[in-house]
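*** Residues and shapes ***
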Amino acid sequence: MTENYDKWNEVKKQTELNKTNWTIKVKEIYWIKIGKNIGYEIYGKDDEFLRPVLVYKKFNKYSFIGIPLTSQTKDNRWYIKINPYNIDKDNYVIISQIRMFSTKRIKSKFGKISNEDFEVVKQNVLEMLYAQKGLPEQSR
């Protein structure tokens, strides 16, 4: 187990040196060096710890909020099915794993989702964030 963290640390050091400037767009999906994370946090696979991530909100050319994807089918309210263009199999965004990413982590472009799929994702993210017991309607 420690070996994976040590390997990720080496990949992370090289990723920090990345000078590539990606022009990212909302609704696009990129292969991201997401890393080896702790506990139930989603992590990347293979030698570069990669995972596809949907750009949910762009802040600037250096950072964005992203939602990791999986091809694993789960009957879970945190997994929202999407159909990225040019990808033959179903994918799911894992909205419980939403977080900030640096564009330095980008390896390559993976695909893009439709406006309709993105609206479904947005609605589910908002419900996750604001559907708290006892929260007044005007606060939503």
Notes: Residues 2-130 form a domain with the SH3 type barrels. fold (CATH 2.30.30.110). Residues 9 and 35 are 8 Å apart (CA to CA).
